[in-house]
Specification:
By secondary structure, the chain is mainly α. The protein has 2 domains: 11-59, no CATH class; 64-149. It contains 2 helices and 4 strands; from the N terminus they run E-E-H-E-E-H. The strands form 2 sheets. Strands 1-2 form a two-stranded antiparallel ribbon. The protein has a two-stranded antiparallel sheet with strand order 3-4. Strand 3 and strand 4 (52-54) form a beta hairpin. Residues 131-150 have a biased composition (Low complexity). Residues 65-131 form a coiled coil. Keywords: Coiled coil.
Length: 158
């Protein structure tokens, strides 16, 4: 079914229903935003009439500007304290990181020193083993020479 506007334009029913649904949704969203903004401002929003009215606090009146300012100041103080704590934690993290890096550097130095000592010890063991082998060879040569001397004639005499 087609609908003809007074200016002569025509639209089908489905298109009009879609536009109505879209407008209804926009009105509902705007009403929800208005209600939320009113509550944040300490007011009440009547969707049916579009009227704003003050929300009563415990004493039956609207919260005063002074009370709102006091709450704002308290919140600012709380934020400042949280920022200080965050800064302290951040500096502690940096200090811990620096200490960790220093400890890591010292540990790395100790490992390198231990590796150097192991290398020197291995070289000393190898040198001692070689010296013992030479000493054993010299001792064996001396015993052999002594044995020849005792079994035979002195060198140069026949």
């Amino acid at each position: 079914m087609m609908f003809v506007h007074p200016d002569g334009q025509s639209e089908d029913r489905a298109c009009l229903e879609d536009k109505i649904r879209c407008l209804t949704r926009n009105v509902e969203e705007a009403s929800a935003k208005a209600s939320k903004a009113a509550v944040q401002a300490g007011m009440s929003y009547n969707v049916a009439t579009g009227e704003l009215s003050p929300l009563p606090d415990g004493t039956g009146g609207v919260e005063s500007v002074e009370a709102l300012q006091a709450r704002l100041n308290a919140l600012r103080e709380e934020v400042a304290v949280q920022q200080q704590q965050e800064a302290l934690l951040e500096s502690q993290i940096q200090a811990d990181l620096q200490a960790h890096q220093q400890n890591r550097g010292a540990a790395l130095h100790q490992v390198q020193e231990a590796e150097r000592q192991v290398k020197l010890s291995r070289e000393a063991v190898a040198a001692a083993t070689a010296a013992r082998a030479q000493q054993a060879q010299a001792k064996a040569a001396a015993q052999h020479s002594k044995a020849q001397h005792q079994n035979g004639k002195p060198p140069g005499k026949r």
